[in-house]
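We store amino acids, tokens; thus:
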Amino acid sequence: MCEQDQFEKDRQEYEARGLVTRRQFGVLLGAGVAMMLPQVANAVAVTESDVNVMTPDGTADCYFVHPASGTAPGVLVWPDIFGLRPAFRQMGKRLAETGYSVLVVNPFYRVKKAPTADKGAATPIPQLMPLAQALNETTQMTDAKAFIACLDKQPSVAQNRRIGTQGYCMGGPMAFRTSAAVPDRIGAVASFHGGGLATDAPNSPHLQVAKTKAQLLIAIAANDDMRSPEEKNVLKETFAKANVPAEIEVYTGAAHGWCPPDSGVYNEPQAEKAWSRLLALYGKALA
């Protein structure tokens, strides 16, 4: 997953097939600059800030955005390998404008403050692999507990409603493990082009989330499905057997990384479909 040459091959393939336009992935890339996402209808006013979250391993720099008044369900966002950057701030703010208190984290805080990818989503993947490889199940679980505890301390977070979490690329397994780390607080888990959701290991993320009470949304890139066609079946069978509500879909024409607006394979129609399904999940599971 997340291989730079694959991004470029996918970009060329999907442009040639007319599934995305050059405008969608070339114009505003570089330095983490994202294209503008569609505006939220009836958006609420929000308050945004940079915050520091204490964890067992240090201080994590994060972005917190929430409705300017009242309380709202909390949401924890795990970014992809390119980390916390303008694109994910924009995505977090958009979610807050629909009525959620959103914490977007820097998963690489142990090594470097955000931005951790010098050229945003245009940063060569090999430069970032050491950051990703330094994380493991233990760091993900301890971080998840610290981030959820931080959300629970915020006056803008509704304590009587469960929390949602969503992850992109490498953030998919992190979202799954967040539910396992704090099962009594997580009500919804979403993975968008997540990699490594189902493995043969006894601690596979999909087995961990199957033991929780969360409702799931799993959006799979078409090319990821081509490379691992059985994974969706494993996920469906596992969650059905565990009686875990799970919407699992392969997004036709969407390449790995299609959701963030600064991605080289950003696919607005399919990203908006994923966005609508996310809101449906949260509207049901966090009500």
In short: Residues 58 and 110 are 7 Å apart (CA to CA).
